[in-house]
Amino acid sequence: MNALRPDLLALSSEALIALSNAGFVKKAQKDLSEGKSPELNSENGELIARYSDGHISTLPAGAGLRDARCTCPANGLCRHRVTMVLAYQHQASMANEAENEPTASSHEAAVETWSPALFKTELETLPSSLLKRAYRLASANTLIRLTAWQSDSPTPTAHLPMCSVRFFSSHSLSHARCDCSDQQVCEHIALAVMAFAQAPTENWTQLNVTVIPPQQNATAYDLFSSEAAMALDQAIQTIALQLWQEGSSQPLHHLEALFAQALQLAESLKWRWVLESLTALRQALLDQAARSSRAHPERTLALLCELQARWTSSRYACQPDAPSTPPLLPTCWVLASKVKSRWIIYD
Ligand SMILES: [Zn+2]
Ligand SMILES: [Zn+2]
């Protein structure tokens, strides 16, 4: 049973939460601990789980969790599909225990060091439009902060200026997760694989890299040159200036229109942290206006500074021509800060 899907055994709870959501994982864990396990079978490499509510989930051979199917009406992932993976892990560890083998639990399965560079050949199977978008990002000199696999932190990660990519399994690229709004493999995941592939093979844990695109794709491109990005820049600068000049107690009606415009632009660009940062700042201002107990002027100030610092750093990191003077603070210090806490909020 273990040999059938080692990639599923390598998925930790953290990975399952990132690939689906915390609610599904908790419910599935609760069901299994109460003995409500689906009936698991495999046919021609396909994993099949039959539930007492009559629904059946299937995972085709070699497919990742996102390609699992279920007979229930849920769009996207459902608790059946998540339960199927946990039940599979549970069954495998029971089988191991019965055979007196060391328990290959989900967390212990991936004991060997690995790098997402091994997905490099898989890049060729991705849609060309997606690769083109990745090359455009690369030709913008997008700075990427890589964190390598480590035994105490076994999820290789790439922090891009606008989003982060985590690789949860060495067995399948489909178990990589980007925090941009895409549920499927996106250009950021492709770019992150290229970055790992260009990094040295050993002797580093954290590294800043810019990907060198293939020659034919090396036309200079500025991430901030699109109409939407320029409009977003304008909206963010206006919001910040307005707040610095008039303070956070000013009536919010004219700021509201700017926030609405900025949020819509960030959403359309799929710039995740910008969206979260603007949402948090807007909420802090609304809390203050409503005299809510959640309102704290220091927090509002910190959110405003964070938005401006990260925005400036991103712009700096994405200049098509390498700047001649280094920034006062390394870009990665600003952009990589608070990443962990944002994940927790979003999970
Ligand atoms: Zn389902
Ligand atoms: Zn993405």
TrEMBL record:
Keywords, ordered alphabetically: Metal-binding, Plasmid, Zinc, Zinc-finger
Coiled coil start-end: none
Signal peptide: none
Annotated TM spans: none
Pfam families: SWIM
GO molecular function: zinc ion binding
Organism superkingdom: Bacteria
Cross-referenced InterPro entries: Znf_SWIM
Domain SWIM-type: 55-89, 163-197
Name of the protein in question: SWIM-type domain-containing protein
Organism from which the protein derives: Iodobacter fluviatilis
Lineage: Bacteria, Pseudomonadati, Pseudomonadota, Betaproteobacteria, Neisseriales
